[in-house]
Amino acid sequence: RKEVEQDPGPFNVPEGATVAFNCTYSNSASQSFFWYRQDCRKEPKLLMSVYSSGNEDGRFTAQLNRASQYISLLIRDSKLSDSATYLCVVNTNAGKSTFGDGTTLTVKP
Amino acid sequence: SAVISQKPSRDICQRGTSLTIQCQVDSQVTMMFWYRQQPGQSLTLIATANQGSEATYESGFVIDKFPISRPNLTFSTLTVSNMSPEDSSIYLCSVTGHLNTEAFFGQGTRLTVV
C-alpha cells in the first residue's frame, strides 16, 4: 500500500463546476499536510496547507481528518486556469515530504 | 518563502557519463532534499542532503549512483552517475525552513539520456 493515496482521476469538469479530491495517508505519525499544484513541465507549487480545523482560501477549501487519516480539497466555481495536477503531500516529523501520485484536473469551457 | 536556483534546467547526455545538478538557495535553510519525477509519475524522494555529512538515502537509491554534496546551508549538488536511459527524468531540489513547514522547489532539471 502506498503511503499517500489519491483519487486516480483524471477529472474532466465544465467551468463553474465544483470538484473534490480525496487523499488518504498511512503513517499515523504524519505531522503536516499540504496540497500542491503542478502545471505541465513545471515544478510543484504550494496551493495550501491543511489543518484539522479546515481552511479556506477563496474558492479552495481543504479539510483534514486525523482520525480517518484523510485529506480533501474542494474547488468551487472551477476556472479554466485550475487545470493542473493536484498533489497531496504529507510530511513526517523528519521533515520529509511524501507525495501522492497526483490527480489531474481538466476544466473545459 | 525561499528562492531556489537550480541548474542546468535541462540536458541531453550520453549513456555512461555523469551529470552534476546544482541547487542554490537565497537563504539558509534547515532541510534540503533531492527528488526524482519520472514521466507521468509523482515525485520520489532520492535523499536528504545533510550539511557537512553524508546524505541520507531512501530505499532504492545509493550514494555510488547519486552522490550528493552539501557544503553549507545554502548549496547542494546531486550527481547522476554512469547514466542510462532509465535515468531520464526530472530532478528537483527542495528546501524547507523548519520541520513540518511547506517545501519549496527549484525549477527542476529535465534530463534525457541517449
Descriptors:
heterodimer; A: 109 residues; mainly beta; 6-stranded mixed β-sheet; 5-stranded antiparallel β-sheet; globular; B: 114 residues; 7-stranded mixed β-sheet; 4-stranded antiparallel β-sheet; 11 strands
Q: Could you give the order of the helices and strands of chain A?
A: EEEEEEEEEEE
Mean pLDDT of chain A equals 92
Give the class of chain B from helix and strand content and strand pairing.
mainly beta
Count of strand segments of chain A: 11
What number is the mean pLDDT of chain B?
A: 93
Query: Beta-sheet strand percentage of chain A?
Result: over 45%
Number of helices of chain B: 0
Q: Into which percent range does the helicity of residues of chain A fall? A: under 10%
**What is the element string of chain B, with H for helices and E for strands?**
EEEEEEEEEEE
| Major β-sheet annotation of chain B | 7 strands, mixed
Counting DSSP H or I runs of 4 or more residues, the number of helices of chain A is 0
Please outline the helices and strands.
The complex is a heterodimer of chains A (109) and B (114).
Chain A: E1 4-6, E2 11-14, E3 19-25, E4 32-38, E5 45-50, E6 55-57, E7 60-65, E8 70-75, E9 84-91, E10 97-99, E11 103-108
Parallel strand pairs in A: 2-11
Antiparallel strand pairs in A: 1-3, 3-8, 4-5, 4-9, 6-7, 7-8, 9-10, 9-11
Chain B: E1 4-7, E2 10-13, E3 19-25, E4 31-37, E5 43-49, E6 56-57, E7 68-72, E8 75-80, E9 89-96, E10 104-105, E11 109-113
Parallel strand pairs in B: 2-11
Antiparallel strand pairs in B: 1-3, 3-8, 4-5, 4-9, 5-6, 7-8, 9-10, 9-11
Q: What is shown here, in short?
A:
The complex is a heterodimer of chains A (109) and B (114). Chain A is mostly beta strands. Chain A has no helices and eleven strands.
